[in-house]
Write a structure and sequence with these properties.
The complex is a heterodimer of chains A (340) and B (1207).
Chain A: H1 2-7, E1 24-25, H2 31-58, E2 61-65, H3 76-80, E3 86-94, E4 98-99, E5 103-109, H4 116-120, H5 124-127, H6 132-135, H7 158-161, E6 167-174, E7 177-180, E8 183-184, H8 191-197, H9 206-209, H10 239-245, E9 253-260, E10 269-270, E11 273-281, E12 291-297, H11 307-334
Antiparallel strand pairs in A: 2-12, 3-11, 4-10, 5-9, 5-12, 6-7, 6-11, 8-9
Chain B: E1 18-21, H1 25-29, H2 48-56, H3 60-72, H4 83-115, E2 118-123, E3 126-131, E4 140-144, E5 152-158, E6 164-168, H5 170-173, E7 178-182, H6 185-188, H7 194-199, E8 203-206, E9 218-222, E10 225-229, E11 234-235, E12 240-242, E13 246-253, H8 259-263, H9 273-306, H10 322-336, H11 343-362, E14 376-377, E15 389-394, E16 401-412, E17 415-417, H12 454-461, H13 465-476, E18 481-486, E19 489-493, H14 497-508, E20 511-517, E21 520-525, E22 528-538, E23 546-552, E24 558-564, H15 566-571, H16 578-593, E25 596-605, H17 608-623, H18 628-639, E26 644-655, H19 659-668, E27 672-676, H20 681-690, E28 700-704, H21 709-723, E29 736-738, E30 741-743, E31 753-758, H22 759-765, H23 771-780, E32 783-787, H24 791-804, E33 808-813, H25 819-824, E34 827-831, H26 838-841, E35 845-847, H27 852-890, H28 903-913, H29 915-924, H30 930-935, H31 941-944, H32 951-976, H33 990-1012, E36 1016-1017, H34 1018-1038, H35 1041-1046, H36 1056-1060, H37 1064-1091, H38 1095-1106, H39 1138-1142, H40 1195-1205
Parallel strand pairs in B: 15-27, 15-33, 27-32, 28-31, 31-32, 33-34, 34-35
Antiparallel strand pairs in B: 1-8, 2-3, 2-4, 4-13, 5-11, 5-13, 6-7, 6-12, 8-9, 9-10, 14-35, 16-17, 16-26, 18-19, 20-21, 21-22, 22-23, 23-24, 24-25, 25-26, 29-30
Helix pairs in contact in B: 2-4, 3-4, 4-28, 9-10, 11-27, 11-29, 13-14, 17-18, 19-27, 21-23, 27-29, 27-32, 27-33, 28-34, 29-34, 32-33, 32-37, 33-37
The chains are: A alpha+beta (340), B alpha+beta (1207).
Amino acid sequence: MVKQESESTNRPDNTAFTQQRLPAWQPILSAGIVIPGFVLIGLAFIGIGVALLVTSRSIQVLELDYTGDSNGSPCSSCSQSVIANCKCSLNFTLTTLFQGPVFFYYGLSNYFQNYRRYGASKDDNQLYGDLSYFTSPSSSCSPYDYDSSKKPIVPCGSIANSMFNDTFTLTWTVNGTTNNVPLDGKGIAWWTDYNIKYRNPSVTPLKNAFNGTVKPINWAKPAYELDASDPSNNGFVNQDFLVWMRRAALPNFRKLYRRIDASGDYQKGLPAGNYTIDITYNYPVRAFNGAKKIVFSNVSWMGGSNEFLGIAYLVIGSLCVVMSVVMLIVYAKFKFPDEE
Amino acid sequence: MSFFGLDCVRKKERELERKIRANDREYNLSFKYATNAIKTSKYNFFTFLPLNLFEQFQRIANAYFLFLLVLQVIPQISSLSWFTTVVPLILVLTVTAAKDATDDINRHRSDNRVNNRKVQVLIDRKLRSEKWMNVQVGDIIKLENNQFVTADLLLLSSSEPLNLVYIETAELDGETNLKVRQALPVTGDLGDDIEKLADFNGEVRCEPPNNRLDRFTGVLSFAGQKYSLDNEKILLRGCTLRNTEWCFGLVLFGGPETKLMQNCGKSTFKRTSIDRLMNILVLFIFGFLAFMCSVLAIGNYIWERNEGSQFTVFLPRLEDDPAFSSFLTFWSYVIILNTVVPISLYVSVEIIRLGNSFYIDWDRKMYYARNDTPAEARTTTLNEELGQIKYVFSDKTGTLTQNIMIFNKCTINGKCYGDVYDYTGQRLEMNEYTDTVDFSFNPLADSRFVFHDHSLVEAVKLENTEVHAFFRLLALCHTVMAEEKKEGELFYQAQSPDEGALVTAARNFGFVFRSRTPDSISIVEMGKQCNYELLAILDFNNVRKRMSVIVRSPEGKLSLYCKGADTIIYERLHQSCSKLMDVTTEHLNEFAGDGLRTLALAYKDLDEEYFNQWIQRHHEANTALEDREGKLDQLYEEIEKDLLLLGATAIEDKLQDGVPQTIEQLSKADIKIWVLTGDKQETAENIGYSCNLLREEMNDVFIISGNSLEDVQQELRNARTSMKPDAAENSEFLPEMDKGVKVVTDEVVNGEYGLVINGHSLAYALEHSLELEFLRTACMCKAVICCRVTPLQKAQVVELVKKYKKAVTLAIGDGANDVSMIKAAHIGVGISGQEGMQAVLSSDYSFAQFRFLQRLLLVHGRWSYLRMCKFLRYFFYKNFTFTFVHFWFAFFCGFSAQTVYDEWFITLYNLMYTALPVLGMSLFDQDVNDVWSFQHPQLYVPGQLNLYFSKKSFFKCALHSCYSSLVLFFIPYAAMYDTVRDDGKDIADYQSFALLTQTCLLFAVSIQLGFEMSYWTAVNTFFVLGSLAMYFAVTFTMYSNGMFTILPSAFPFIGTARNSLNQPNVWLTIFLTSILCVLPVITNRFLMIQLCPTINDKVMFKVRQAKATPAPPTRRARIRRTSSRRSGYAFSHAQGYGDLVTSGRFLRRPALTRSSGFTHAGRTTTSFSPMGRSAGYSPTGRPQNNKVPDVEVTSLQMYRTITDSAP
């Protein structure tokens, strides 16, 4: 036999792998697994759904459209005119406390920030503060890379060019006194955007970095003068700019404008009372049937208000339970047909 | 072996005649004949890149991706970065190029090895060692024993008497017996005298290079004389010189012009039916892609007109024309949606096939220990087709049978020997434990000869005259050559294994054939040396079906010994034998019933005077110029009469192990087996019965043996009517039309039928007017046997079935005559180790035993098919799902060709994130293990019916993808609509949405894979979880600060992962989509299993119930048939050596004086080991049939052992 072994040089190895005998788990869809599985999943889903729905319902949302489409609406005059910084104001009343922390959003609809060429129209290197891209912006910014006199536009591209430029102030009227509600614009953009993705060139003063460039065509002020009150909130790291530059996935979207500063009277949110929003109306949306709105909302552990998830979980959970019953009936009636 | 299977260099110009002058390089060079260097490689260092790329871009998928790349560099169209296409394309090109490069390097190596072999060449009147590649046409070279023949040579002289050389032609025609070549006497006289050889200035005019191995015509002009040259004087490249000390040859053809290289034409490229289906599907996908892109382009047109045109304040516009915009959009979407035609599909398919081929190579249960042969997948591209075989065409000799002839029984003078009876007179079944006859009284006996009946040896010892005459005849009347390396160690070389078996039987019973010279035969009769004078050999041929020798015994008595087919011998017997004839006939019938091959023996004593007169006429006839054959035949007929019957022999044509079981298994799997054999009808029929192909229980076995078109047609029709009385009488039945090709559908008949058709009738049946009739009838039968079939007809039969049946065919064979059939069938299988290499070399799969076929098909084939189909279904699913999401998103992004996912995800999705899990499934998946596969051969049927992957299942995949993509787009859409993070910041931005959808997608397809997979090994688990982990690792890396700082424009997704994957609602969305994608699948599958389970479901359920290892299937013991079927004796098909033996050309070989370096390694231990059809003896001396107990536990043996131990 030893001789035989030594002659068998071509004998394949006897391993589980080569002989396809690897130990394995072979699950099959037996009734014992599927039906209880469905019941369990169904119940879990219903549970999650209820929790989500309850949470979502507890979130307070206040939406105010200020596009000014119809004649009666406060901003209709501004929406018709083309005057810069047209003023109009909206009033609303809270009968109960709007639980804090309260976020102040502006919303746009029918606005295609997800249009491919719009989204590509920016220069990440330029926005990263690379000065060489200031003088020669990427061609992806076209047609907003150079102005008519061939001067480079900084920040280039249509996203930057189309930056939202309505501004709002919120006042609270209670017992005849009018208080300015303090709005906090710090840290409304992603930390990574503010600290890493966008950077001003390390040139002081910042203005010098922009020498030989022009501001975007639609902009009233150059990038280094976006926020007169806070010098550190200028250039590419301006919070409003950062929020705008994070383009939306869908044609209807809202973007964070400010937070209600939780201090003083507003520690718990917005107290009951009459409020007025003074709007500086600049941004034209009516040409493309767009709409603008102001949204106040608070958040929960699951983020902003969205009932869909809760309902979806509930529906699918119930479907699972129903299906498990159907399966049980089928199983009991037909069973597994015996072989031959 | 390296010569074969490689591409040959085609000759550019046709030459009409070749002129060569020996030893005159200058003259020969003027014709620009090819030198002896061969080049089978395709590329060199510089041409590799351009040539290989050119070849690769001829493939449609690669060309398509190149086209995409071109689209992508047009900025107006480019919707994706160039790297999304370039990375996969480069990867695919590199992998293929690397494979081609290694192949070519191997070819270079083997070329170099061959080209650098050394040979002695006569240059400038001296023998010099030269490399093969430097040998020129017209050179004289010296070959030594065991050397490969360098080029096609004209044999000039040799060391052996009569200028003979012995060559082995295994590489050329697969035959392992030695062949003889003889030089012309005029050149033979040159000997090894270098001076004479150098002066030799003969001129050869011969045919141009061609690929006919068996023919050569030419003329040698030397010293004013002309000598005709034929194949007998030519040594072909690829042969090996054996038993010849040296020889000299003149190079006629070199390198690429040799017959060997001319013969290795490009092998036809076989494609599987899945390949063909895939091509259709790819075309369909292209159409579908165009459709989707058109829809989106139209959408873009409408959107641009209604919305986009008003949106110009914020959106950059390149052009105002919506029509032009939609045109560009069309192409942009072609780029984005390109993943429906996945380039990685082809690469993955190749990898899977390669992996499954390795499993075949690695399978120990297909390894044959006796000659150390593992199974080999020679083609790695056909695996899944093995799971779809509907027709198996098998050769008989060497495939079903071992081609080992065993002297099993005999009848001598009316007494039958060979059976063993117990004390009650009951015949005993023979097995390994039956005690065997002890031949120790005979020192020259072959130790491996086994005989059970002691009475025969008693009869020999008792000096029974008839018995002695019987064995004397066997020892004298043959054309076997003996070789005695060492005193007492005989080695026989026989023309046919039958002869070898008979001479060996005589040897063991004390009549040892020792040696022969042209005019004498020396045998050892019961220990006594006797020299018989050999006066004439009346050789065998197909018409005579008998052979005789006329010898003079040492006592001076003249005798004629004759053996031949019983019917032929009976006609020539003396009437005094009639009583003995009756008894013998009875015995013959009995032998035939056992499936033995029989041969009748007879003799007669000759009158001296009559013989002298006869031999005179014989000599005259032999030298006659006209009708020599006819005259000789007449003479033979005259002397071979009034013979006295001695008895008959019965030889068992041994079936290979497990053949009946294999055939039974295969027929249970609904595979139809057709045996195509060159054997006679009786033999074939007998084998058909003994291997379970034909059964006594069959309702009828039709025999078609008509000799005219009408007869055959009538017989076929009769057969069909008796099978199915209501079948259409006339031949104008209506075959289904399928794309212009007629398809003969299977017809259901009641009962089982067999069909036997002989070669003659087959020729008619294959004629155009009758082929459908034949096919239709044959397909209604369970078993079909075609006998006396030529190699060409074998191929024709296969082609016929391929043409009219939408079925996959497999041909299995072992000999050179099976090559055509092996090449014609969808899959060719070669039986290795039996008869040369020719069949194996042209086969797709090879193994040593026929019984491995069931494992190849029922296990490997089935699994390969299952895996490939699962792979394709899943692959299309995952890619369609991936792509369709883009389609839905288009309606929300102004049809702007905005991608949903991150570009890096698009690049890596197929390459990294989903590649390994699906590969893992396709390499490891099995529904039930091999034991269960054998137990339920019906599991094979779905493959034949194309059930696992067809156009229908492809559409199901597409629909499923459609559903999944809807879920994957709209659930995240609705979940993210107007929502924010838990700190009030943005989460509905494009980047977060992209990340969310792609994560959902990856989870959904991974879970879907989990449900597809029915065999979770650790590797699978590792691949699935590893790929998900990899996805997160890569994503977090790509979206990290570091990557962004290095290349800001390439990694714009910085921070997205961190900012959104920490949100509970993101995870809830992922969970929801994953569950929602698989719930309907599970529901559907569960209900299908309950309501209409497939065979797989049933077996899997049974496995589940059995839990433990299943009880093995009980094997049916081989039933001994007691039919009265008469078997014919199939003598060798070729003419014997008789001519050579009597003509005196035969070499007188001293028994023990050889001093050549050639030692037969194995011969000292083995003396009789028939392995070839035409050669009983293996020149390599490997033991073929020595029984080694417990060598390997084959699957069948394993079952048997388990059965025995089971209650």
